[in-house]
Amino acid sequence: MHRVDINARDLRILDPLLSYPSTILGRERAIVLNLEHIKAIITAEEVLLRDPLDDNVIPVVEELRRRLAPSSATQHDVEGAEEDESPFEFRALEVTLEAICSFLGARTTELESAAYPALDELTSKISSRNLDRVRKLKSGMTRLNARVQKVRDELEQLLDDDDDMADLYLSRKLAGAVSPVSGSGGPNWFPASPTIGSKISRASRASAATVHGNENDVEELEMLLEAYFMQIDGTLNKLTTLREYIDDTEDYINIQLDNHRNQLIQLELFLSSGTVCLSLYSLVAGIFGMNIPYTWNDNHGYIFKWVVLVSGLFCAFMFVTIVAYARHKGLVGS
């Protein structure tokens, strides 16, 4: 805290046991940064990174060592950096932003490669296994979408406030505090990364007094943030497209289930109608099976044929009538 001049509240943002959203804070002598697994404090001369041996953080450490050239760089390296120089803190910030955008982009690509085939398989065959698989993928997509949204919102908030961006110019504030005319570009300034180096170079040439000049000039940082804002926004658009595809698949499945439900209802109607008609036929058989004396029972063979024929025709006619009425009312498909 004394070394980088921040308070305990800022330091809590880096605590892995506390749940803080993605944050980029500018302080007098440091930038406090919390982006997913990357938790760091960036000053005008050094980067303090938490958990540097973590599997996801090791590539960030290696990239920082590669891009942040040591102060013992040769004169040839310094002369080659004149056209593309940018403050130390911006180059460190660019490494972290590029790492987190690439990390979230890779997670999104993995999710897409698993989700689209699973959704297509579910569309072709609705089963408990496929439904559970899609449910897990949807849960993962929701969590990833929230993480990407937090990073995007933080970058958007910075871009919307010039004062917040001005607070990130640590070298400018340090140079102003030491000497207004001091050439502090010195040993800590080296070529920016090739990803948006040309943009930063144009911004540097357009505002040659970035460090010593107008404190409201934030064009260089604005171009840096816009580049990664567009990248994270593209990742968020991919997740939005995937969410829409999942919603469309769910709607299609619901339509299929409703159609199957309607078919079952129609089958139930046919079976119920047939049961009613057979019940009437059984009723006739039960009545004539009773031990009741009647005069025309002597010629029972002749009467038996007519009873069976008339009862069967009446039940069949009744069944056809019920089905025709249901079709007329639109209760079953034609």
From TrEMBL:
Keyword Ion transport on entry: yes
Segments crossing the lipid bilayer: 269-290, 302-326
Residue runs in coiled coils: 134-161
Superkingdom: Eukaryota
Pfam families tied to this protein: MRS2-like
Record keywords: Coiled coil, Ion transport, Magnesium, Membrane, Transmembrane, Transmembrane helix, Transport
GO cellular component: membrane
Function: Magnesium transporter that may mediate the influx of magnesium.
Any one GO molecular-function label of the UniProt entry: magnesium ion transmembrane transporter activity
Protein name: Magnesium transporter
Gene3D superfamilies: 2.40.128.330, Magnesium transport protein CorA, transmembrane region
Organism: Oryza brachyantha
Entry-linked InterPro entries: CorA_TM1_TM2, MRS2-like
Keyword Transmembrane helix (UniProt): yes
Membrane topology recorded in Swiss-Prot or TrEMBL: Multi-pass membrane protein
PANTHER family: MAGNESIUM TRANSPORTER MRS2-2-RELATED, RNA SPLICING PROTEIN MRS2, MITOCHONDRIAL
Location within or outside the cell: Membrane
Family: Belongs to the CorA metal ion transporter (MIT) (TC 1.A.35.5) family.
